[in-house]
């Protein structure tokens, strides 16, 4: 490692040689050249030094590697590629990894545009998510030390997760649907399944463990990259992921009524006997009119999942249980989505805590009074 003046005499060059790697940087001031070398030495001493040459590849060279590393398929994969192509690639596709800065990312997000004008907050969030994940992959691959997009957030995208119905609204809504389609809506609203998971259920996925019934979520019905509906293994979290969903007693006879003794048949089938399609099912169920009957014109099937999550959290206050029910990767994710619903649970917990403290204080007072009325008679030899 050394610092020397360039032949022109107008700048300083810092030279680094380490484990066969050679690197040099030119600076206007000797002080800056020395500072750069000091930082490199510190990284080497900490064992966190990275070969700068590995950060000179274009960001675009990592996109396909990152996408292939994800355990996702179908529409999720297609959407990620569309977001990359439309918004991220034009700015960062040919840019070297090491040249991406926090300021650059922040300005790109703030100025992002679509063909119709300034991009909506959700579009910005999706574009930033793809870029951030590609750069995370670069960090994991030892190409850059930190992700310059890690701490950037998009204003206007945080909020409650869709609409959640009260139990009264849910029952009114279900009653307004076509009679033959009510079972599906009630299962969605009480079990918290994603539509893709419910549509992929077979009769073999209904299992009993002792007195309890469970739905084993092992597959999902989704659109592939060509727009065709296919059944894939696993859940939204990946092809190797499955989970048991407990069936509340109200749903047990409903599910039993759909069992025909054919393990490989869909548990919930269309009127034609095929797997359910969300658009066709909503039309046949009278979804629009039923939504209007409770004043929720923009209600989606996914909102019934939010309804189940809300009910389970409010009635149990058990975040870990709701995490398992929904199939979230972490309890933190569940809290991020539904923390605003825990007020009732905290109120109940506070009341129970107050009752417990009052009972302890009362018991302590009784013990103190008893000791006062019956003092000990200790003496020599006692």
TrEMBL record:
The keyword DNA-binding applies. Keywords: DNA recombination, DNA-binding. Residues 57-139 form the Core-binding (CB) domain. Residues 160-351 form the Tyr recombinase domain. Residues 357-382 are annotated as: Disordered. Pfam families: Phage_int_M, Phage_integrase. Residues 363-375 have a biased composition (Basic and acidic residues). The keyword rRNA-binding does not apply. InterPro entries: CB (IPR044068), DNA_brk_join_enz (IPR011010), Integrase-like_cat_sf (IPR013762), Integrase_catalytic (IPR002104), Integrase_recombinase_N (IPR010998), Phage_int_M (IPR053876), Tyrosine_recombinase_XerCD (IPR050090). PANTHER family: PHAGE INTEGRASE-RELATED, PROPHAGE INTEGRASE INTD-RELATED. Belongs to the 'phage' integrase family. This is Site-specific integrase.
